[in-house]
Design goal:
Layout: H1 4-16, E1 21-25, E2 32-36, E3 42-46, E4 59-63, H2 65-68
Antiparallel strand pairs: 1-4, 2-3, 3-4
Length: about 80
């Protein structure tokens, strides 16, 4: 899923459904980190600690710009 095209598609769908936070399972990535996308979403990911480990596990969270900035309050309240 690390391919730019796939990440971009997930971000597009997240915006389409107006989601602030999206959990992603079975990423199959190694190590942990974060990446800010050109469209302002933030991707936080975690997988095997060893970079040379098999790509069999991993999870990620994608945060919208609003969630990334910590502005998750209801604008109508």
């Amino acid at each position: 899923m690390w391919e730019t095209r796939k990440i971009s598609q997930i971000a597009t769908e997240m915006r389409r459904y107006n989601l602030a936070v999206l959990g992603i399972s079975e990423t199959h990535w190694t190590q942990a980190g974060q990446q800010r996308l050109a469209t302002e979403e933030m991707l936080l990911y975690s997988g095997h600690e060893d970079e040379n480990a098999s790509h069999t596990h991993g999870v990620a969270l994608m945060l919208s710009k609003v969630a990334r900035d910590g502005n998750l309050t209801d604008p109508e309240s």
